[in-house]
Design brief:
The protein is mainly beta and about 120 residues long. It has no helices and eleven strands.
Length: about 120
């Protein structure tokens, strides 16, 4: 059973920093890409940052220059370093993995971690 487990959310003041972590476990053949999405009540889940196996990254315009996505050496872990946080960054952050398991390509999600930025 493939699982994504996130950690690192919490409450921080505007201008502060947080680092989110996500680890993928289970029977995995390969991970094509991993990313972070966020969602606030009443709105659609939106992409925050994405990183591919080759290291190519993609960021939402709203976080460029403030957030950095990276992968661990084992390639089954992804991090999101969030600096200069703003109240508008408050959301539930979800880890996402595009992977191959059991000879099938799958998209898996973590359970979500709350990030709250106070003004």
């Amino acid at each position: 059973q493939v699982q994504l487990v996130e950690s690192g959310g919490g409450l921080v003041q505007a201008g502060g920093s947080l680092r989110l972590s996500c680890a993928v476990s289970g029977s995995i053949y390969t991970i094509n890409a991993m990313g972070w999405y966020r969602q606030v009540p009443g709105k659609q889940r939106e992409l925050v940052a994405l990183i591919t196996t080759s290291g190519t990254t993609n960021y939402a315009d709203s976080v460029k220059g403030r957030f950095t996505i990276s992968r661990g050496n084992a390639k089954n872990t992804v991090y999101l370093q969030m600096n200069s946080l703003e109240p508008e960054d408050t959301a539930v952050y979800y880890c996402n993995a595009d992977l191959v398991s059991g000879f099938t390509r799958q998209v898996r999600w973590g359970q979500g971690t709350q990030v709250t930025v106070s003004s």
